[in-house]
């Protein structure tokens, strides 16, 4: 990799920004249509961050409701950025959209700089086009989540880290690298693998100062966030991390076989299942790195090959310990880094020597075809269901949240609600909340951690907290807790689409069920056209 070509940098920046602007002009109206005439995020989790940010600005409480602190954000950096914007423009749900558009601009500029640094216009343009399609920044911008900003910051940090860990390091970039590394764990904790790998590279080169910088900038944000959580009586790690952790069952195969499965087979299986295009990128990058090191063992000291190694080791680490999420959002930063690394490597490889052998020519052609096919499928999948997802959030989460808000007689709301999706409910109503998915409820999180979250515990919570209304997805409940809710069913809200997860409203007892049914009947006139109410027997 070289210094960026100014002309190519400008052209790529203009092209990427124009593509984002055109895409937003096309997709925002579809989003508004899916939301029934208003802008709705297609991931309900966006409203968790919005509620946290608003409560911090308006009530001085870092919580999903104004009633108390909750360690419910796995991206406090994003939440704090939203709070800062809300302090200026007001508590609007569009704050996440505004911030994400700015993050999209930053990502376009970072990618333009990165691909203009490959040393080849052909590889730079091809890499930028592939990255724009497979990262799918447009749906991510409209998700209201932190992933676009994480992509931009991570790629910038990885480029600087590769430079500082190579023979091409420059002293004037250390402060910028430190700032980016400090911010990364506040956006996504899985970013910590970059700190670990950078420290390892630095120690390998005998650079203790860079190693200490990498370790300190990774540890400090985590320790500060954990200290705040502990001071508020919560566990050290954020609730989303603990609640969504996959608890590994004890293996009977012995430690060696279990280790091979966990660190080798399972990562390959997960990447191949959820992100096959990432696996193909990894295979191509690994093959090119091996070929280059075989011909020149000192190539690992060059920036481009340090970047390739960071991508390979980081993607494997993510596949082993982190998640691949619905909507393709968690792996977006890996795809961005992978395309930058692959484009840089492609520009640096001695192609005549590589393609001199027929078998190698066939392998390169095969990988190229697989990348085109897998990438095209991802581009299609990332963009085809967004309007339907928006409609689902609008009907399944936003309207019920507004219905609960009609029950509130005070501000802050004192209605005692139990729920499984808390984002839109917290944003629109902010009730006294019992969160059965444990993101915003310390007691439920403790029950989950001790394997004590069952229907008996739910019944006790409902009685002790005098729950007035419960919004439950029955199939989620059966999977997450087991059985059926020990409450009185009042009605089910069902979309007139093929969405398989209707929302059911429950009350604690018969008297509460009658009151809830009456309140729901009074709001039937506001029911969206695409939403039906299936009443439980006796409450129609």
Unreliable stretches covering 5 or more consecutive residues: 246-251
Q: Give the tally of β-strands.
A: 6
Strand order of the largest sheet: 2-1-3-5-4-6
Q: How many structural domains in the coordinates?
A: 2
Approximate helicity band: 55-70%
Mean pLDDT over all positions: 93
Largest sheet: 6 strands, mixed
Please tally the helical runs, counting DSSP H or I stretches of 4 or more residues. 23
Structural class: mainly alpha
**For the terminal residues, how far apart are their CA atoms?**
69 Å
Order of helices and strands: HHHHHHHHHHHHHHHHHHEHEHHEHEEHE
Strand portion, in percent? 5-15%
* Form type: elongated
Radius of gyration: 25 Å
Explain the overall architecture:
There is one protein chain. The protein is mainly alpha-helical and 540 residues long. It folds into 2 domains: 6-40 and 94-384, no CATH class; 387-535. Helix content is 64%, strand content 6%. It is built from 23 helices and 6 strands. The protein has a 6-stranded mixed β-sheet with strand order 2-1-3-5-4-6. α1 runs antiparallel to α4. It is elongated and about 80 Å long. Residues 246-251 have low confidence and may be disordered.
């Amino acid at each position: 990799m070289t210094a960026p070509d100014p002309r190519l940098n400008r052209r790529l920046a203009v092209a990427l920004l124009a593509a984002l602007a055109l895409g937003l002009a096309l997709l925002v109206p579809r989003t508004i249509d899916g939301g029934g005439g208003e802008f709705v995020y297609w991931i309900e989790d966006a409203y968790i961050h919005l509620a946290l940010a608003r409560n911090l600005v308006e009530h001085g409480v870092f919580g999903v409701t104004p009633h108390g602190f909750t360690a419910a954000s796995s991206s406090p950096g994003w939440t704090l950025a939203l709070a800062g914007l809300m302090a200026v423009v007001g508590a609007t749900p569009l704050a996440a959209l505004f911030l994400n558009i700015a993050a999209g601009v930053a990502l376009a500029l970072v990618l333009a700089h990165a691909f203009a640094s490959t040393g080849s216009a052909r590889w730079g343009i091809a890499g930028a086009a592939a990255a724009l399609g497979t990262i799918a920044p447009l749906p991510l911008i409209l998700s209201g989540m932190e992933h676009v900003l994480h992509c931009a910051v991570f790629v910038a940090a990885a480029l600087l880290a590769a430079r500082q860990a190579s023979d091409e390091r420059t002293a004037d970039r250390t402060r910028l690298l430190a700032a980016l590394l400090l911010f990364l764990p506040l956006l996504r904790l899985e970013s910590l693998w970059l700190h670990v790998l950078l420290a390892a590279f630095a120690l390998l080169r005998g650079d203790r100062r860079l190693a200490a910088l990498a370790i300190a900038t990774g540890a400090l944000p985590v320790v500060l966030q954990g200290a705040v959580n502990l001071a508020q009586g919560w566990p050290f790690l954020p609730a989303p991390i603990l609640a969504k952790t996959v608890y590994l069952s004890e293996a009977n195969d012995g430690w060696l076989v279990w280790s091979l499965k966990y660190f080798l087979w399972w990562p390959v299986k997960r990447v191949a299942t959820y992100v096959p295009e990432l696996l193909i990128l990894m295979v191509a990058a690994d093959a090119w790195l091996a070929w280059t090191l075989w011909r020149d063992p000192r190539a690992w000291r060059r920036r481009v090959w340090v970047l390739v190694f960071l991508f390979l080791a980081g993607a494997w680490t993510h596949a082993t310990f982190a998640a691949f999420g619905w909507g393709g959002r968690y792996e977006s930063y890996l795809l961005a880094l992978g395309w930058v690394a692959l484009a840089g490597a492609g520009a640096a490889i001695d192609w005549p020597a590589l393609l001199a052998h027929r078998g190698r020519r066939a392998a390169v052609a095969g990988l190229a075809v697989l990348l085109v096919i897998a990438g095209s499928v991802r581009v299609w999948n990332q963009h085809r269901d967004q309007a339907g997802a928006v409609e689902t959030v609008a009907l399944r989460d936003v309207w019920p949240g507004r219905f609960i808000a009609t029950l509130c007689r005070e501000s802050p709301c004192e209605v005692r609600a139990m729920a499984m999706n808390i984002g839109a409910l917290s944003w629109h109503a902010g009730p006294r909340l019992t969160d059965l998915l444990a993101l915003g409820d310390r007691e439920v999180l403790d029950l989950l951690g001790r394997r004590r979250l069952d229907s008996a515990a739910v019944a006790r919570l409902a009685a002790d907290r005098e729950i007035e209304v419960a919004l439950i997805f029955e199939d989620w409940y059966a999977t997450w807790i087991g059985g059926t809710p020990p409450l009185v069913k009042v009605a089910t809200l069902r979309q007139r689409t093929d969405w398989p997860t209707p929302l059911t409203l429950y009350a604690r007892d018969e008297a509460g069920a009658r009151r809830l049914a009456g309140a729901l009947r009074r709001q039937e006139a506001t029911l969206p056209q695409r939403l039906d109410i299936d009443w439980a027997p006796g409450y129609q």
